Amino acid sequence: MSYSTVQIRNVALAGHPGAGKTTLFEALLHAGGAIQAAGTIERGSTVSDFDPIEKERGHSIDAAIASTDHAGIHVNLIDTPGYPDFRGPALGALAAVETVAIVVDADTGIAHGTRRMMEYARNRGLCRVIVVNKIDHGAHQLGQLLEALRSEFGTEVLPLNLPADGGRRVVDCFGRKAGDSDLGPVAGWHQKIIDQVVEVNETVMDHFLDVGEDGLSGTELHDAFEQCMREAHLVPVCFVSARCGTGVKELMGIAETLFPHPGEANPPPFLKGAGADAEPIQATPDPDAHVIADVFRIVNDPFVGKLGIFRVYQGTVKKDAQLFVDDGKKPIKVAHLFKLKGKDHVEVACAIPGDIAAVAKVEDLHFDAVL
Fold first, then answer.
1. Rg, the chain, Cα only
2. What is the model's pTM?
3. d(Cα 295, Cα 324) in Å, to the nearest integer?
4. What are the pLDDT digits (tens) for 188-218?
């Protein structure tokens, strides 16, 4: 295991059908070096849409998982289907992540799937990021779309970067005070997002008023930014063209520096016992504690049989370890432990808190089982 819990970022791509989630999934894997070339839906060569029916229809029907390493972080990505008929896998996948990236088509704008996933993610206490895709098309008004997003979802929706040169590049408006973009000067948006970030933390706000922005440390800004996302006080917007690659590396950089790791996000509720006697317990990302993991997906794989995909919240799941399913009295053995890359399974020795892994050939596993 070459990474720790604080280096993990768990991100689900969600949103309306056709927004470009699968294409962005490919672009992020390529930017992180997990694949040599990004596949395309048209050729049926994507990592996530590997099912023959998905290739035939040209859209996802189930959630797909893959991971990549980038600049010192390990990113677990989940590509979710957008069509309402297949929303179950999308909603189930959100249980495994800290951050939901809601992908919006720059051509068509806000749609029903956008609203549903924004609402669902907020109700679950997840950090939300809006990713405006297809900024290279040129036939749309990105400024009007940004204002529509702010009108629909609140003034906490603020851009981290802005398109420039007709959508051929993006400019940072969080770390930079000056510059020009297709939406006008960077300075105004920079001031808005800085004000939004510092006001959530009283200590940072007092320090900001005393010494100004230049006097704040990177740690202060990061902690305040993460708190804003956790408390839904900020919904950042990033601009990309997944097909052309514009803004994709910048999005990976934002994930590294600003997205929460598993120890920073709102912890999910767990209960010990059943019925009226059930008691809430809190999982902590301690690798040495006893294991708490949630099975959020079950797959019947033609090669390895029944595959239970789970997110580790506490402890370390090791190959050949024995675990209990729910309140079961008989332990199961983790004979084969995998990381997933679409249809491929990579056997690993362990899974630490925050990681997403899978165990094969355990018949007692079911959706939402707690290990």
1. 21
2. 0.84
3. 12
4. 888 888 888 777 777 777 666 666 666 666 6
Q: Whole-angstrom Cα distance, residue 136 to residue 242?
A: 9
The 73-79 sheet, strands edge to edge: 64-70, 73-79, 8-15, 99-105, 127-133, 235-239, 157-159
243 neighbors 103 (Cβ within 8 angstroms): no
Query: Which domains does the chain carry?
Result: 5-257 (3.40.50.300), 270-360 (2.40.30.10)
Per-residue confidence (pLDDT) for residue 38, from 0 to 100:
54
Strand (E) or helix (H) holding 360? strand 356-360
Written as one letter, the residue type at 296 is F
- Mean pLDDT is highest, among 232-241, 256-265, 276-285, for 232-241
Left, alpha or beta for 96 (phi > 0: left; psi -120 to 50: alpha)?
A: alpha
Least confident interval from 65-74, 101-110, 163-172, 265-274? 265-274
For residue 276, with 0-12 CB atoms within 10 Å meaning exposed, 13-18 middle and 19 or more buried, which class applies? exposed
Distance CA 131, CA 269 (A): 28
What are the strands, taking DSSP E only, across 178-325? Answer: 180-181, 184-185, 235-239, 270-272, 279-281, 292-301, 305-314, 317-318, 322-323
pLDDT tens digit string along 334-351?
777 888 776 677 778 888
Mean pLDDT of 138-149: 79
Tokens of 95: 């249980």
Q: Decide: residue 329, CB within 10 A, 0-12 exposed, 13-18 middle, 19+ buried.
A: exposed
118 and 89 in contact (C-beta within 8 Å)? no
Backbone angles phi, psi at 261, to 5 degrees: -90, 170
Arithmetic mean of pLDDT over the chain:
77
